[in-house]
Amino acid sequence: LHQTVPFWFISRPVSVSQSSKRCAVIGGSGFLGRHLVEKLQDRGYSVSVFDIRQSYELPGVTFHQGDLCDEQALLSALKDVSLVFHCASPAPASNDRALFERVNIQGTKTVIEACIQAGVQKLVLTSSASVVFEGTDIKNGREDLPYAKKPIDYYTQTKIQQEKLVLEACDKQKGFLTVAIRPHGIFGPRDPQLVPIMVDAARRGKMKFIIGDGTNLVDFTFVENVVHGHILAAECLRPDSPICGKPYHITNDEPIRFWDFMSEMLVGLGYAAPRFHLPYGLVYSLALLLWLLTWILRPLLSFKPTFTPMRVALAGTHHYYSCERAKQDLGYRPVVSLKEGIARTVQSYPHLRHGA
Ligand SMILES: NC(=O)C1=CN([C@@H]2O[C@H](COP(=O)(O)OP(=O)(O)OC[C@H]3O[C@@H](n4cnc5c(N)ncnc54)[C@H](O)[C@@H]3O)[C@@H](O)[C@H]2O)C=CC1
Ligand SMILES: CC(C)CCC[C@@H](C)[C@H]1CC[C@H]2C3=C(CC[C@]12C)[C@@]1(C)CCC(=O)C[C@@H]1CC3
């Protein structure tokens, strides 16, 4: 694979000292976090996980179970650690405003304070490309797009605050360097949302319809490319590099029609591809109405609609992003193509196949 290496990257010392290879992954029990932990170990890092739950065991990886809002718990996990990846967040589907504010805003402030107190030198945040998305088309969006003034949900609203906090904390004088990775539509083996939600909808006969004309292009990013972007950012983060305090889009660099991606996944798993078109405006209005009804009736019934306004907006608009800045500054190139990523994902879900 041909990679252009940035000039300041070449000046990096060849051997990375042992202490700079001690890292912690906050949210390391999650989908992205676990893939990141596995790759970091492959690359010779000594890895600790900090997470509110422990979802697996891996020889050589130390687990610290705790809430990232608890500074004392974080401090003991960050002892002797020089590099921290923060990829913890409540799931977007929870739509729990208080929880998002507590974990993504207050918790991230606590993470920053704990890192500084523990002498951590680098903090890599997993942000989201959605921080600039307002529910209307984004084509080849670059990092200089303004943050969404009207974010599509509480999750996105708090991801914006979180990213600002981390990037503003970057301080070369104090030797505390930060960077944010903005992935989009992460998919791959063990993903708990995209494929399971899609299959659940298909099993309930709800994936027969294409919202809109079906031509809207979207980024779906294979998890190993997202991991690659995080590790490149960590390894490039030095006081003399241009990446300090900046956000970077990491995508597969292969925008695809939303409904072609869904169809490939569904057909690969043995389900029929969606065929019938429904007008975007109609579906969005119905989703909004249903969402309002479930909100008003929430003391009486707990019903979670499949087609939320957020999902309809994501399914019916263009939202794809340029990763040119990551190519330029990090030497990033996707390491797994979309075709290969889809094939590996489909293979990894035998229990979600039609008839299983
Ligand atoms: N999945 C996607 O398509 C995208 C995800 N992201 C971001 O990537 C990151 C990782 O997402 P996923 O791996 O998909 O989610 P995930 O839900 O699989 O992992 C998140 C992890 O954070 C942990 N966590 C939540 N609250 C915590 C707390 N208070 N203290 C300690 N740990 C806590 C959870 O236990 C979980 O293991 C998140 O920051 C998310 O916002 C960004 C763009 C797209
Ligand atoms: C029911 C169908 C219309 C949709 C099924 C698939 C969706 C569950 C996913 C399609 C795009 C995904 C996506 C995210 C979550 C899962 C989808 C809505 C995110 C919101 C996850 C967190 C982010 O930061 C942005 C993602 C955008 C794409």
UniProtKB/TrEMBL annotation:
Q: How does it sit in the membrane?
A: Single-pass membrane protein
> GO CC terms on record?
endoplasmic reticulum membrane; lipid droplet
Q: Which domain of life is it from?
A: Eukaryota
Name its cellular compartments.
Answer: Endoplasmic reticulum membrane; Lipid droplet
Q: One Pfam family for this entry, by name?
A: 3Beta_HSD
Read off the Gene3D superfamilies from this record. NAD(P)-binding Rossmann-like Domain (3.40.50.720)
Indicate the segments forming the 3-beta hydroxysteroid dehydrogenase/isomerase domain, all copies. 24-275
* Pathway the protein acts in: Steroid biosynthesis; zymosterol biosynthesis; zymosterol from lanosterol: step 4/6
Q: Which residues cross the membrane?
A: 282-301
Q: EC number(s) on record?
A: 1.1.1.170
Q: Name one GO molecular function term.
A: 3-beta-hydroxysteroid dehydrogenase [NAD(P)+]/C4-decarboxylase activity
Q: What are the BP-aspect GO terms?
A: cholesterol biosynthetic process
Please provide the record's keywords in A-Z order.
Acetylation, Cholesterol biosynthesis, Cholesterol metabolism, Endoplasmic reticulum, Lipid biosynthesis, Lipid droplet, Lipid metabolism, Membrane, NAD, Oxidoreductase, Steroid biosynthesis, Steroid metabolism, Sterol biosynthesis, Sterol metabolism, Transmembrane, Transmembrane helix
Give the catalytic activity.
4alpha-carboxyzymosterol + NADP(+) = zymosterone + CO2 + NADPH; a 3beta-hydroxysteroid-4alpha-carboxylate + NADP(+) = a 3-oxosteroid + CO2 + NADPH; 4alpha-carboxy-5alpha-cholest-8-ene-3beta-ol + NAD(+) = 5alpha-cholest-8-en-3-one + CO2 + NADH; 4beta-methylzymosterol-4alpha-carboxylate + NAD(+) = 3-dehydro-4-methylzymosterol + CO2 + NADH
Q: How does it assemble?
A: Homodimer.
The entry sums up its family as follows: Belongs to the 3-beta-HSD family.
Q: What is this protein called?
A: Sterol-4-alpha-carboxylate 3-dehydrogenase, decarboxylating
Originating organism: Kryptolebias marmoratus (Mangrove killifish)
